[in-house]
UniProtKB/TrEMBL annotation:
Entry-linked InterPro entries: IMPase (IPR033942), Inositol_monoP_metal-BS (IPR020583), Inositol_monophosphatase-like (IPR000760), Inositol_monophosphatase_CS (IPR020550), Inositol_monophosphatase_SuhB (IPR022337)
CDD domains per record: IMPase
BP GO terms, sorted: inositol metabolic process; phosphatidylinositol phosphate biosynthetic process; signal transduction
Secretion signal span: none
UniProt family annotation: Belongs to the inositol monophosphatase superfamily.
Source species taxonomy: Bacteria, Bacillati, Bacillota, Bacilli, Bacillales
Recorded catalytic activity of this chain's protein: a myo-inositol phosphate + H2O = myo-inositol + phosphate
Organism per entry: Paenibacillus sambharensis
MF (Gene Ontology): inositol monophosphate 1-phosphatase activity; metal ion binding
Annotated Gene3D superfamilies: 3.40.190.80, Fructose-1,6-Bisphosphatase, subunit A, domain 1 (3.30.540.10)
EC numbers: 3.1.3.25
Domain of life: Bacteria
Protein name per its UniProtKB record: Inositol-1-monophosphatase
SUPFAM superfamilies: Carbohydrate phosphatase (SSF56655)
């Protein structure tokens, strides 16, 4: 939709490209590194600068919209859902991860992105994930398909887990989540072709949309990790649910995202791993 001078998508692309290019110039030269909720949950001044840049640009174009950004929320496993709850009346809500993959960014491992989504009355209508290291921009608009480099994305064709390359991740509340992560790996790894854990949920989701991975799962994530990626996958023909198979919504923390055909098999393997 066109509001004022620019479309939502044009503003989101502009924000992601500007922030992404700036982040790339700062790789290896951040000055302040802080632990948030745990020693596994990092933040630098570059995360904060990126979020400020994106927020200011969005607010210039859409001053009456609401904004939920990772760095504007108190750290902690449930804080994002509390923040979301306070914004449930918002007509338009932008959901932003200014650097998804901060640990990678800190270590110079080039697998981090800017993730920007827009929800209208709780439904995600726009998702943009920008990978500055490869200059790849993934975009989806509700009902209009998903694209990378201007080419339509389609999920992979694999029909079973044994022929699938999958990805997972280890959430920020590591310590608490690790026993379940290990059980899930033990259940899925012997069945899958192989598993990656590259440290950016949003980029893993974009790769599922692009058919480079057949599936991704991770426990304990936040709306800003998942919102944009979920629309990319749905618009590429894939399926995104919670661990119990419930359709994706902004409050989902435990996500299973696949090309579709392998979804039920992966859900079953994860269920067998227990809770
Ligand atoms: C992190 C990444 C990572 C996931 C963590 C997230 P952040 O996001 O998505 O893949 O394993 O749980 O916190 O903190 O780098 O934006």
């Amino acid at each position: 939709p066109i509001v004022g001078r620019k479309s939502f998508a044009a503003v989101a692309i502009n924000c992601a490209a500007k922030a992404g290019e700036w982040i790339k110039t700062k790789l290896g030269s951040y000055v302040s590194l802080n632990m948030k909720f745990s020693q596994h949950d990092l933040v630098t001044e570059i995360d904060k600068g990126s979020e400020t840049m994106i927020r200011n640009l969005i607010m210039t174009h859409f001053p009456d919209h609401s904004f939920l950004g990772e760095e504007g929320v108190e750290p902690g496993p449930n804080a994002s859902l509390e923040a979301l709850d306070n914004m449930k009346e918002a007509e338009y809500l932008w959901i932003v991860d200014p650097i998804d993959g901060t640990t990678n960014f800190v270590h110079g491992f080039p697998f981090f992105v800017v993730s920007i989504a827009l929800a209208h009355k709780g439904e995600i209508i726009l998702g943009v994930v920008y990978d500055p290291s490869r200059d790849e921009l993934f975009i989806a608009e509700k009902g209009k398909g998903a694209y990378v480099h201007g080419r339509r994305m389609r999920v992979s064709q694999e029909k079973a887990v044994h022929e699938s390359l999958l990805a997972t991740g280890f959430p920020a509340d590591h310590q608490q989540a690790l026993p379940l992560n290990m059980k899930q790996l033990q259940s899925v790894a012997p069945k899958a072709r192989n598993i990656r854990a590259s440290g950016s949920a949003a980029l893993h989701m974009a790769y599922v949309a692009a058919g480079r991975l057949s599936g991704f799962w991770e426990m304990g994530l936040h709306p800003w990790d998942l919102a944009a990626g979920s629309l990319l996958i749905q618009e590429s023909g894939g399926r995104v649910t919670g661990l119990n198979g419930e359709a994706y919504h902004l409050g989902i923390k435990d996500v299973v995202a696949t090309s579709g055909d392998i979804h039920d098999e992966l859900l079953k393997l994860l269920k067998e791993a227990g809770k």
